[in-house]
Amino acid sequence: MDITRRNFLGIAGATGIAAAAAGAGLVGCAPASQSSSSNSESQEGSSQSVTRNVVATYTCDICICGAGNSGLSAAVEAAQQGLGVVVLEKHGGTGGGGIGTEGVFAVNSTMQQEAGIQIEPAEIISTEMNYSHNRANGLKWLDLVQASGENITWLKECGVNFTGVVDDYHGGQFETFHWFGENRAHDDFSPAMTQTAKDAGVQFLMNCPATDLIQDESGAITGVYAQKLNGDYVQVNAKAVVLATGGFANNDEYLQEGGFSDTTNVKRFLYGYDGDGVRMAMEAGGASNIPRMSGLMQLTVSGAPGGEYGTFGRGDGLVVAGHNAASMWINEDGERFCAESAGVENWMADMIPSLMHQKLYSIYDAKIFKDAYDGMIAPRIDWEATQEELQQRIDENPYNDFFSADTLEELAQKACDALELDYDTVIESINTYNDMCDAGDDAYFGKPAEYMQKLENPPFYFCYMPQACMVTFGGIRTNRKMEVVDKTGKAIPGLYSAGVDSADLWPNIYTINVPGGTNANNINSGRFASKFAAEYIGTEKVGSVSSEGDTSESVPDTSWSMPEGELKDGTYTDTQFGMFSDITVTVTISGGKITEITQENELETSYVGVAAMENTLIPAVIEAQTPAVDTVAGATRTSDAFRTAVQNCCEQAAS
Ligand SMILES: Cc1cc2nc3c(=O)[nH]c(=O)nc-3n(C[C@H](O)[C@H](O)[C@H](O)COP(=O)(O)OP(=O)(O)OC[C@H]3O[C@@H](n4cnc5c(N)ncnc54)[C@H](O)[C@@H]3O)c2cc1C
User: Fold this and answer.
1) In which residue ranges is the amino acid composition biased (Polar residues) (predicted)?
2) Mean pLDDT rounded to a whole number for the chain
3) Per-residue pLDDT averaged across 475-499, rounded?
4) pLDDT over threshold 60, residue 416
5) What residue spans define the domains of the chain?
6) CATH of domain 8-289+471-549
7) Using H for helix, E for strand and C for coil, what is the string for 572-611?
8) Of the candidates 461, 432, 468, which has an alpha carbon nearest to the alpha carbon of residue 372?
9) Which residue of 245, 254, 473, 581 sits with most ligand 1 atoms within 8 Å of its CB, as the best mutation to test the pocket?
């Protein structure tokens, strides 16, 4: 083994002592230019050492970690600044969670001017500052608002497609939402930005997540390591690095630090958002902003009929929680704990009170449940049409968490038996609540009288409502130039962050009433990071990317085939995780042939994943009589899960 460097930061990353080591001023690694392109690198400095088999070295001006909305914006801007750019992406496709975004916030764009929409920028900022009790970063809001109109023009020049519709996004406070088309950023943003970046010479390394930053003895960033799917490492030597890895919605430790009381109670929608950027920033000495995090957070009822709403999926919190202030909530002790109108003004707020508790349950009568459906803003759900599905959900009750009964006593008994709640406390809470409804006065929590509707119309419903965290906002502390800063506010030279990794415009609560803000921040912070990185790099820039060593692509080692032997007639089922949720595939074998395939899933997007399976993969497998059919472009993860499930079904049939 060729030991070429000592990197205390890398070791500390593995042992959890990174910040302490960096803070203590321990010696960092040698300059990246001294390393060879193909070697094994072992890092020492504590009892544990990290060995990396570095097979290739790339040398560029700037390395961007993450190819989502902010990373793509940073990449295009960096190339336009004349920098040599490498983008590292954890997954096999670009776009990140950003493929689901429906539009972008802006003030005074040409589209707004053409539509005669006038908004006073200061009004937006004062709204945000008031809403956050002045915890929001006012200067970053100022920068964002001032740049937002021009950013729309820039995006259009990059080929991004807007429908031309600008509105208040289903009842927000301002007409700032610039809509993409119905297939969202998946069709209208990511492909154009990726192509523009490639045309400008940006080099993408896919399936190649950044793992550790490289710093020189002064603490300046000199590059980043990334790991290929086969376990080999590449070293990217860069004068600046932008962390744009999409937040930490999958990182239990960080979520708990951000205030989630019990992360087992969190329903996740996106995988891969492990907080890599936040971890790397902190290992390099960056300060944490996690305690001020917010995000796209909602209450949900898994599997309840509710139609589709992006990755919130079926039975989402929009149906039953934030827009249904007339339900009654209790916690894991069976006690009512807040006014259920918490999400009336801002549906991102309905989950906040639950953070103080371990579990949240919601109780409805038939009228209130129906009103919840009827009152939903988007999409409109037909109550009558969902009745059969609702009953099926309750009858099958796959998670043992959704009950209905004709009396409140029977309902409470069923729920308490299943969920180990105290019956006397639950029934006492319900009766007290109903008494307050009779009086039209929530003497405990002051819920407005209009929402104090007595639970009196059978059947009654009782649902567990897990918290749902789709995306987190915030984590890495940055200054106005998007430089990562330490606890004293001092910038770490060469280290930048963009997108939700460092979003500090919505501390503690996301203000959906100013619609499209996060995406506007993704774009603006990406552009800012690259502009200021270009200024920092100055005349040192080389304007190109060079590489040496084994630069072969990182590709998944997956293939599909039919098992040997005859297939026995029957129906076989297998479940695999797709892009956003489990996909259950059922294969029917008749006469030794695959004759029918059906799929069920909770959260795959209709316009990408479901369309890929229904329109392409199912017919292709039946025609070819093998799961070894082509991937549907843009739906790689759904395609992989589907083919694996089909193969497993066929293996059951062959055994
Ligand atoms: C379904 C959905 C709809 C939304 N709609 C809107 C909307 O309409 N308007 C709005 O303002 N906001 C919206 N948001 C919120 C927000 O704008 C998005 O979450 C946005 O994607 C954030 O951009 P990002 O670049 O920070 O992260 P992402 O777009 O998620 O990109 C992060 C990328 O980093 C990659 N990555 C992770 N770890 C590593 C690593 N170690 N190395 C390299 N790469 C890594 C990921 O694979 C991913 O590709 C929506 C979010 C979702 C999920």
Assistant:
1) 544-561
2) 86
3) 98
4) yes
5) 8-289+471-549, 309-465, 570-654
6) 3.50.50.60
7) EEEEEECCCCEEEEEEEEECCEEEEEEEEECCCCHHHHHH
8) 461
9) 245
